[in-house]
Amino acid sequence: MLMTTTQNLEGFVILKYLGLVSGQAAIAPIELRDFANFIRREGGGRHPEFEQLVLETRHAAMMSLEAQAKEFGANAIIGITFDFANLASDGLVLITVAGTAVQAEDKRKL
Predict the structure, then answer these.
(1) What is the CATH number of the domain that holds 103?
(2) Which of 59, 99, 107, 109 has a 20 to 30 A CA-CA distance from 50?
(3) How far apart are CA 48 and CA 70, in angstroms?
(4) How many CB atoms lie within 10 A of CB 23?
(5) pLDDT digit string (tens) for 6-48?
(6) Are 26 and 88 spatial neighbours (Cβ–Cβ below 8 Å)?
């Protein structure tokens, strides 16, 4: 499925706007505690393991977004935005991705 943060798809014509879609995924507190302990031990700087966990969680949110768009009959999602929220005092982090599901057609096929 085509996905973009822009409001259009270069080389495509948007035939139909199908509606807002979103996907969510959470990083569990136990995973965050493990990384918090790791960061305390190792000090500042980049932490590839934590970055990988965030990347995997964001990917899960995008897969949820894509599944919802397919239910709408979409072949593309435009205007994608990402949001990260701390939901609980124990550290649960929610990653939300949202966009507009559309049906688009390649201009070269018209």
Answers:
(1) 3.30.110.70
(2) 99
(3) 32
(4) 22
(5) 999 999 999 999 999 999 998 876 655 566 666 666 666 666 7
(6) no
